[in-house]
Amino acid sequence: MIGRFALKLLILVIALGALVPALAQDVIELEAWVAFSDHRYDWAVDTAERFNALQDDIHVDMVSVVDYDTIVNNYTLGREDGNYPEIVQLFDAALQFAVDSNWFSFAEEIIGGREEVLGHPVNFDDIIPVISNYYTVDGVWASVAWNTSTPIMYYNVDMLEQAGISELPQTWADVLDACAALQSLVDDGTISACASWPFSGWFIEQWLAQQNEYMVNNENGRAGRATEFNLDTDAYRAIAQFYRDLYSNGYFIFEGQDQWGPPTQNFISGKVAILMSSSAAARAVSEGAAETGFSLDTTGMVYNQDAPSGWVGNILGGATMWISNGLTPEAEDAAMAFLLFFSNTENSASWHTASGYVPVRNSSIELLQNLEPGNELLWDIPSGARVDIEADDWYAAFPNFLTASTQLGNSTVNNATRGSTYGTFQQSRPYYNGLVEDYMLNGGDLDAMIEDTNATLTELLQEYNFLFADE
Q1: Are 299 and 155 in contact (CB under 8 A)?
Q2: How far apart are CA 178 and CA 191, in angstroms?
Q3: Alpha-carbon span 290 to 164, nearest angstrom
Q4: In the chain, count of helices (H) and strands (E)?
Q5: pTM score, two decimals?
Q6: Half-sphere exposure of 107 (CA within 13 A, CB side)
Q7: What is the C-alpha separation between 51 and 342, in angstroms, rounded?
Q8: Based on the number of CB atoms within 10 Å of its own CB, is 264 exposed (0-12), middle (13-18) or buried (19 or more)?
Q9: Segments of the chain assigned to CATH 3.40.190.10
């Protein structure tokens, strides 16, 4: 009897051993690339692990890539050698690339009219309209919103009050007036200059949208494929002149193109009183101000008070999550289920606390305004874990985190504020940003500079269209 039992047990062990690899093969393995390597990546890994714990047949592995441009470049190389992720984070400037490459399955097509995917609700109607409109291509949801930002102003209230400024600047003229008043603090060595912020083409794009102007023709490429640049406008000239006025008067510390760290440190350390930056910096700036010991306040991005249309609205920034095409239907559903979880009400709210990125869902804002004990929404950076927000209303306790959502929520949704989409977006930014830099630093014939740059960028765009546009 013992011998027979041992034999049966041996047969059972062998059978189970053969079965384990078969079961392992049934697990859908997904790789997702994101452009973060700090505490924001830690949050992403934690959230993926939370998703993985919900089921046994899907496993998501988060991979950190250096930055947005590197993700695009690495993904392109990966498509050529067959080594690429199922999910990838692409920033706003890569929208036309994503469409023209034919490398991605659109989110709405994967969902196919379903209200949920593998138990995870879709509810795209909950997404803030200006966000949904940016990533809608020909009326179809292309990708899943995640990290959304917009530029806002950060003010050292103590410095402003010391200079006799009682109201926060709202317009370009207000900034220039405030800088003139702050000059006395520069002269006595209290601060080094009035203002400093990243010199980014993203801000130029924002200021064009605020003035209801297009970067490229065919209504920013939204009414038809863009074929020409549209820099020869009063709106673009006004941006260049505003920078020239700031710099020539000694009000602005210029740290070079696309340098985000130094201007932020200039502000946090108390060298300047005014910073313009992404809302994604809200947590870092808030904590830096508290550590330095000054009062912080924020407003929406300052605007051109002389624009004929006034302030129309702002474009979003940041990135969304795209699903590679060519996956099995089961893998597509698994990827979509993960992204719906990744950006659901609770996770969008938690992501906001970890960074300052705008909650992409209206329900997330409502959740943050009506908190209950046990919410576990606050990302605690030192411990790398979620903890309770110990307040009834996140925004009442931390009002500077609401500024970005208010700005986007108040923005008119049109083809100016939807942002431009065209194939040479990444390559073009250094040109139209560089022109403004050159004029800010050196002055010159602005009309001639615009004519030359506009022609160069139009030529680049038309060369791209020749290669990639459908006949």
Answers
A1: yes
A2: 14
A3: 22
A4: 20, 17
A5: 0.91
A6: 29
A7: 8
A8: buried
A9: 26-149+316-410, 151-313+423-468
CATH class (in words) of the domain with range 151-313+423-468: alpha beta
Close Cβ partners of 367 (under 8 Å, ≥ 6 residues apart): 345, 346, 349, 375, 377
Q: Per-residue confidence of the chain (471 residues) as pLDDT tens digits?
A: 344 534 443 443 344 444 444 444 589 999 999 999 999 999 999 999 999 999 999 999 999 999 999 999 999 999 999 999 999 999 999 999 999 999 999 999 999 999 999 999 999 899 988 888 888 888 899 999 999 999 999 999 999 999 999 999 999 999 999 999 999 999 999 999 999 999 999 999 999 999 999 999 999 999 999 999 999 999 999 999 999 999 999 999 999 999 999 999 999 999 999 999 999 999 999 999 999 999 999 999 999 999 999 999 999 999 999 999 999 999 999 999 999 999 999 999 999 999 999 999 999 999 999 999 999 999 999 999 999 999 999 999 999 999 999 999 899 999 999 999 999 999 999 999 999 999 999 999 999 999 999 999 999 999 999 999 865
Rounded Cα distance between 361 and 379, Å, is 18
AA letter at 46: D
What is the CATH code for 26-149+316-410?
Answer: 3.40.190.10
